[in-house]
Sequence to fold (324 residues):
Amino acid sequence: RIGEILVTKQRGQFRYAGQKLHFENLHWLLNNDERLMADAVLNFAARTVAAKFQGRLRPDTVLSLVNPWGAVWPDFLSCPLPIDFQGQLPETGWDLSQAEPSLQGSVASLTLFGSTLPQTSFNLQLQNQNIILSDLLLSFDYHQNRFVRGNLNWNYQRRRLSGDLSAQLNLAALLKNYGLSDSQTVLTFADWDDVRLTIRLQESPLSWQGLRLQGHLQEQYWRGFNYTVYALSLPFTLADGILSIDNASAGIDNPLHDNIDCSVRIDLEAALASRVLRPAFELALRPHPEDVVAPGRLSGECEIDCPRGTLAISNAQGSLLPER
Fold:
């Protein structure tokens, strides 16, 4: 037994020379049909250990083996199947709290924030109380047409996450995964099936109030509220529970011109609770070359009821040219 891990079968070869104990072709069969194969060297003079390893283990088993002081796997991740991996443990002291193992892994099923991913691969390293994921690929389908790629850093002592991600997503499908199965809610975003997204996440706790990030969302076509929107571009930030969209642009009923600029502020926590968006906004029409004066500007507040598919504007002021 290693900590809480039960080793049900073990075999391998070993030899001792120069105050070093060498384990070669070591095979461990663990509980729940997990396995680990390794070559390792224990240096009794220097009181160090080094190893190369491969196998199939669950995430909590990995942490128990290389992190006996009790780090907790993030609860927003569920991994029902073992991870296939290979890696190494550089020479380190017998106090494994300072160990910095690294591995390359893949898993056939992973649940992240409620979405099931059939393909996942990554490089992982434990360093200074951080789980560092690099070259991360989260695929929402077997053909990798919908995916998330990037690098993440999870500080398991402080429970803080940071990283950089890029994604290509079907937003309507994700809304269904989060329980937003109301037909009007999904239909509002039914055309958002090819969303391109980039995110830079500052070190943040995993709560809507605490997340701090910057990002950029793009969608080439959207039909909603009786309008056709082309080339939607949404730069955004999230801080203190407020989603801010600054200098967004799109073409309304015109695929050839980005003819609208928009800035929006949304209380995200309230919006998620009620499924109603109540943003403050500023909207401007971009002038055409033939315009003598600016075609218009509008600011105010609006209410977007996603379940009902309705849009209402209040406290608005500005000026608009009727012909535009």
Notes: The mean pLDDT is 81. The CA atoms of residues 260 and 285 lie 5 Å apart.
